[in-house]
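As noted in the main text, all predictions were made from sequence alone. Below is one such record, for MFS transporter.
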Amino acid sequence: MEKRKLRFWEIWNMSFGFLGIQFGFALQGGFMSRIFQTLGADVDSIPGLWIAAPLTGLLVQPIIGYLSDNTWSTRFGRRKPYFLIGAVLASITLFIMPHSPVLWVAAGLLWILDSTINISMEPFRALVADKLPEEQRSNGFVIQTLIIGIGTWIASNLPWLVNKLGVTNEAAAGIIPPSVVVAFSIGAFVFILSILYTVLTTKEDPPTDLEKFKREKSESNFIKDFKESLSTMPSTMKKLGLIQFFSWFAFFTMWSLATPALTQHTFNAPSPIAAEYNMADLAQKAVYDAANLKYQDAANLVGSAMGVYGLSSMAFALILTFYTAKNTINRKYIHMFSLLLGGLGFIYMYYATPDTLIYSFVLIGFSWGSILSMPYAMLSSSVNPDKMGMMMGLFNMFIVIPQIIAALGGINFLYKLIGTDHINAMLLAGISLILAAISNFLITDKNAISG
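Prediction:
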């Protein structure tokens, strides 16, 4: 059955839940390292604390993809039940996270948060392929990217904004500042409300052949389907996997180490280590409090600057939204050029000042906007639509494996080959994105490239 073309607002409504998902990811990406440092983590241990994020994605996304492929309810739909379950659990975790009393609690909550965000996110990718005809898929993924950009920018600025509105940025040693607590609480409400909006405004289409679907569902087996999907993975998906490897290694490096690297290198405000101060001495406590406030203020500014990559990814998405509504594009070269810009943005961080740091994130935003749309558009043209959830989940392996490698010591080992200063991790991220850009030359499938 041929799928009908959807109007802009129909695509917008079905993608709107990504606003909440990105609130969760942006708060996690922009401020988890800050929470870890506040609770006493040293910089080189932070990537390891982040390992929860990729590991949960590795486990959760293929399973959720498989389950949603094999779900159909006339009342609840196919993908929507997973949106909603993930949203409820993620919102609760976002609310609790900044109240973590010690480091191990924050690390444990990150496992839960990333798992639940992944439960909501994976089916959104499959929903675009479910509902949109081939000629609208680039447009659909680009509109998702537009909403993601809005969410990234707003969420990344929340601690700074609530601080400007009068919520203090000061806190005792080992306590998360109230500005961060309020920001995470706002994120929790936005997450659940935006997912509810998509659930209530979007109707899912039933399987084309319902009897065949029921028969295949009764015969399906996750292990069997997983092995079959791995063995039948198209070559384009494997090539995209290499691009994704370098791309997500770079962004994991940014999320885990940008705050400690930039507060130290760009703002000259490293996180003070409470154990190095005699808190019983009022003079030393005053020195610590001043250094901690300077760090917390710098971390707010790093978060705000980081939010700019959401704005530029939004601009990227807006341009492509209007263009792809009526024209085809060369996905390969758009992705290549965007990744190159992001690589240059990371490298510029080494030379940036507090006033010019935003230019790095402007360039990074173009690569982020492309990463969130072009690989998925190319992939959706290359795989079996009946297995879209499973294949999107498998594709996530190419996202999480580089992050696991990075978290298990890959970042620390490689950036120290450049130099011991933490800012060199951002140079490593730039090199990785440039390698991702060059890898686009491997993509040769015309159906994947043009759309």
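The domain at 8-203+229-449 is CATH 1.20.1250.20 (Growth Hormone; Chain: A;). The mean pLDDT is 86. These features were considered when defining construct boundaries for the mutagenesis experiments described in Section 2.9.
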